[in-house]
Amino acid sequence: MIELNGSSLRLDQMHAILFEESGVTLNDEALIRVTKSREAVEKIVREDRTVYGINTGFGKFSDVKIDEKDTKALQLHLIRSHACGVGEPFPEIVSRAMVVLRLNALLKGFSGIRAEVLKRFAYMVNHRIHPVIPQQGSLGASGDLAPLSHLALVLLGEGFVWQNGKPVPAMDIWKKHRLQPIVLEAKEGLALINGTQAMTAQAVVNYLEAESLAYNSEWIAAMTMEALYGITDAFHPAIHEARGYPEQVDVATRMLGWLEDSQLTTIQGEKRVQDAYSIRCIPQVHGASWQVLGYVKEKIEIEMNAATDNPLIFDEGETVVSGGNFHGQPIAFAMDFLKVGVAELANISERRLERLVNPQLNEGLPPFLSSEPGLQSGAMILQYSAASLVSENKTLAHPASVDSIPSSGNQEDHVSMGTIGARHAQSIIKNARNVLAMEALCAMTGCHIRGAEQMAPKTKAKFDQLKEVVPPIGEDRIYAPDIEKIAQLLTR
């Protein structure tokens, strides 16, 4: 079980919650903070102080005062009216992340929500009750209003949740668990939806997948080097220490580790003096992508523990301040940066794949790795497919964060589009994974032709693992299932 306290959640803990089915518990001190913050809201309502979101309208309606008797209806109307997301739903794993992150943010105790609501969130995590949340409709500022409203609907017994991969009415689930829906009190609706948890949830999943893919890209590249008699001198530690980027040094070290004791790699001058950039510059290019991942990780871990709603309540209600922590610009930039870093892993992978299949470049391997060149096409169209995906990535890598459209009568006149950036980053990761799967299939085929028994022990172990999933290219076959199987392997 992972204890949540609003301030110390890490990505490795999110991995445990998302991919290892760990549950969550709530820190007692955090719940005390939450209770005190709630008491402050109730005092504001009793004293009829005018405070945004508690007894006023929202956005452009912030100047409209709401009677005390209508504060519950105000929150209900807010959730229903803002639940206007469209398109395909987020993957269930992202929905789970969204619940965890919203819970963790509210545990900071600055939002004025009841502990009862947060305990229901924890129940949802621990019983795998995951809301169905449409992906499209968030501007990424004023919070991820539409996606988080669909999340909040489930608490109210409205909307839908996932069950066995299919949407079912939320009320059916609460009846099954013998629980009543939550009835929102003053400010609670706003506390639930004013935040960046949709983009951050997708960002968490993106980072975890991208990190895994970056590690996998290295052994795939090492296998390609063996198939092409690659020159290992380019990974000499002195070269990379001379430049000074730690990530570049680390990649070069890992590459030498993968290729240790290989009988297929060469040294400079043995077959040629130097390799093409897609081989020789693996530490420089992959290392730069690791720099991107480092930046992204830092920003995500800050945002996972951030208070991102509005207004925030301090000093037990004596200070209630309206601000803009719901603005998603930090995550928008991080996701746009991640798109570029992952797209480059695919770009260089496609260039290595081209060298494996091109008879002008592949050091004597059969043209397109065909067992009968001309009669059988071999891997010819794998390169076409990879080229298509890297080209698509270049379009998706256009930064979402440079766009903004005013909303709410121009009151909310600058927005981040961070959720769009996070969604596009997920598409780039999927495309990159498929490109690397294609390189892996061609690299294992090249090593099979060279003689797999000559491979380095570590790459040979990966070769054997791949071979359990798909065979090397031989007689022409339908390659789409092979790509999918290897891509699945690369998600681990």
UniProtKB/TrEMBL annotation:
Species name: Sporosarcina soli
- Report where the covalent cross-link 5-imidazolinone (Ala-Gly) sits: A141-G143
**Taxonomic lineage:** Bacteria, Bacillati, Bacillota, Bacilli, Bacillales
Output the Pfam families linked to this UniProt entry. Lyase_aromatic (PF00221)
NCBIfam families given in the database record:
hutH, PRK09367.1
Pathway where it operates: Amino-acid degradation; L-histidine degradation into L-glutamate; N-formimidoyl-L-glutamate from L-histidine: step 1/3
Primary residence: cytoplasm
Protein name, as recorded: Histidine ammonia-lyase
What are the protein's UniProt keywords?
Cytoplasm, Histidine metabolism, Lyase
